[in-house]
Please model this.
Amino acid sequence: MVPARPLPSFLVNRYLGWKAVQFAENRAWFRRLAEEGQHPRGMIVACCDSRIDIGGIFHADPGEFFMHRNIANLIPPYRPDGDLHGTSAAVEFAVRVLRVPHVLVVGHSQCGGVAACHDMCCGMAPELERETSFIGRWMGLLRPAFEALSLPEEDRAARLEALGRAGVVASLHNLAGFPFVARAIEAGELALHGCYLDIGSGELEVLDPENGRFVAL
Ligand SMILES: [Zn+2]
Model:
């Protein structure tokens, strides 16, 4: 038997509502997407966090953005070792096949992944240090950024914010390390962008490549 159950009724009802209203009103657009395939205007890498409405903040219609979400919106280093790399596969597809002209990495405030990394690196979360912790191993990508933090240890909130922004910067560096990404940038066909969204205020900051600072729009 397949380990699955029928959908709960609230999802069935919401789906039927969507089909009757949003889909019905945009039937032609969906048919065009089905017939012509996808030609997204960019790729967005965001966190899995349920509070981040990444399509909503950019008024995204279906077909406009190739989305990839993972814990703490991280891009791992380029590592063609035959292992299972879901995020790298998404980057490869977006850049090599869809040839998106933009890749945005969008970090956010109050990120649980970033807090987990911080606590693990402080020795406060031994369960995350185990080899068997998927979260711990994944968030280990941010350990160099943690070690580079210069804020005082008692200012945890500020350190988490700084670490979240540093994760965006580290991910952009890792992205640029994929040879096909580097080639697309060199050819003027691709631009990388770093953003940071404050959940409570709705403020979006954009990374200024000149000085490495995040500036609110
Ligand atoms: Zn997050």
Q: What stands out?
A: Residues 47, 49, 72, 108, 111-113 surround zinc ion (CB under 6 Å). The radius of gyration is 19 Å. The mean pLDDT is 97.
